[in-house]
Write a structure and sequence with these properties.
The protein is mostly beta strands. The chain is built from no helices and 8 strands. It has one domain. Helices cover 0% and strands 71% of the residues.
Length: 113
């Protein structure tokens, strides 16, 4: 380490690097209505999801500035398909004619296969 900086395999200095993976997420969720208070209903969600890789990049930074961006091939252990468990909760407002408007917060736990 010269000057407090690491060097990559071709000898270029860098401060930090990030692997950025972008997925499209397809959840299949079950919804349970818990508490109904007037037109408001508390709900919880849970279920599996399939995640398909759209892109995987390695970004290298020097002094906070992006100096290199490269696609990561599958040979680096990048998985094109992963599965996760999704869970969360929210609230719904029921209008007439059985129209529901709501908000929800979801969290995923990923399992790389």
């Amino acid at each position: 380490m010269a000057g407090g900086r690491d060097k990559d395999i071709v000898g270029m200095p860098y401060d930090r690097w990030d692997n950025v993976e972008t997925f499209i997420h397809f959840p299949v969720l079950a919804k349970v209505r818990l508490i109904r208070e007037g037109k408001w209903t508390a709900v919880v969600f849970a279920g599996p999801a399939a995640n398909f890789l759209l892109s995987a990049k390695n970004k290298t930074y020097l002094d906070g500035e992006l100096i290199s961006e490269q696609d990561l091939p599958e040979s680096f252990g990048v998985k094109t398909l992963t599965f996760s468990l999704v869970f969360g909760g929210g609230a719904e407002w029921v209008f007439s004619f059985n129209v529901h408007v709501g908000s929800r917060i979801l969290r995923s736990v990923h399992k790389m296969l």
